[in-house]
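Sat 14:20. Reprocessing the chain from the morning session after the first attempt stalled halfway. Input below, unchanged.
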Amino acid sequence: MRSHPPVGQAGTGTTSGHDGKEAPQTWVLADCMSMVEEDPFGARDYAQDWMKHGGDREARHCHALALLELGDELDAAQELDDLVRKAPPSGPESSASLRAVMAEEAAEAWLSAGNPPGALSIVECGLSIRPEDTNLRLAKARALLEQGNTGAVVTDLTALVARGADAPPEAFVLLASAERRLGQLDKATQHISLALQRMPDNAAALLERGIIREQVGDATGAQVDWQHVLDLSPDSHEADLARQDLAVLAADPDSP
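Finished this time. Tokens:
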């Protein structure tokens, strides 16, 4: 996920001081965002307090990301989706770049909630605002893959990877995954190799190469890749999938 472009600097409100009087307090978006990954409960509470004291879109944005980090994907997706679609007509919070960021985040939340159509819908909304946004194009590919629309992924990402060195490495991973699902294993092998040349320790790329290797009959290579995923990122979603693949391989090492 990309970094967040700056919007407003701060919001103000009042809280009760020790003497019972109302004391002014300032809420800062950067402070809230900085807590999302390390202390999502703290970020959620900070954002909720901010919203109680007049915080609007910035507070809601941080609140949604905290919910996503806490595993409440559906509420996060609905909040982010609403922020994208109901942006003000002018001002910094109406900027195309900010709405594109939120659209990508909403798509991630919809996918995490098991709703690829919701992800695709908000991505299309984001692309109508910022048509050439690379991150949104990648989010669209992830949503299409979840829906099984591999042909559309190949079409979209073949054009994207044609940029060569300017193409994001993740595009090669997603393209390889789509090609592998279509049975185009030679192309998939080529594209996953290009991805790993640029990011050799990327768990998603290693997981995908392991799947491709297993399908072409290289069980040893697949096992090496999946074990590498576990070593690099043991608590990740990719590691969970690698464990499943290793278990299947151990149970039936001669399976294609």
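The mean pLDDT is 90.
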